[in-house]
Amino acid sequence: MQPVIGLVGVGNWGRLILRDLVALGCDVHVVANTEQSVANAREFGATAIVGSVAELPELDGAVCASIATSHAEVVLALAEATPGPIYCEKPLTADVAQADQLVETLGDRLFVMDKWRYQAGVLGLARLAQNGELGAIQSISLRRVSTGNPHPDVNTIWTHMPHDLSIALEILGEIPPVTQAVGEFVNGKIVGTRAILGESPWVAIEVSDGAPEHHRELRVVGSTGVAILAGGWSEEVIVRRFDGADDQVIAAKGELPLLAELRAFIEHVQGGPPPKSSAADGALIVRRIEETLEEASNECV
Fold it and tell me: CA distances (Å), 216 to each of 143, 146, 213, in order?
């Protein structure tokens, strides 16, 4: 029997979520209110299109892919529409109080779509770090820069940093507190940051929308070696040993992360284990971003 899934948000990213839900055999009912979102819903295989959450049929689960500043409102509305699990695009919200409210209200019914926790290269780095092949982990460095920010409702810190914090969670099993952050500002608005979290190991994160080109890099440094994922689409992890041995190249091929995380959600809807990122994980990421923004703003004064 096909799972019946509600989807709110069918923009440039939401349409791909719809595509993959359909590929996974779901019966997807979409809430769409603009001409473009209606066109996207039709093109990518929606079973039905309605104008509000209240018009959705009985659902087995739901996905929120609306703009970040509307997540809390949409998730709470979906919670009234279905007793099943809800998957929310990152960030869970752009406000700590709202995130905490969602955790308190929905508990283990709510999960966050942290696709990088399903990316083959990240999973390979996590295995290397956790099985001791790099020795004692000293640091994780993440760089995620791009040209411009396609999300006008939030700054680029909210757009980029959730990915890197979720990667740190996947590798370390925790997200250390922010110890230092500085900001990049243009006309008084923050467009990037460099943040340090924790001490031993520490996590360094650089995000910006002021770069001349898109670039992604992830580096995990241990006492005996370093492992590098050189880009978001890279299909190999490079391991360099400090004893002078030849570099090791480890294949990092797997299912596309969006499809993989949606598969995990649908399997949970059907009675399987939960997806990786809980609502509590999502709220912690929101808290770390607010800490970063506060620290970066202080540095600017």
Answer: 6, 9, 10
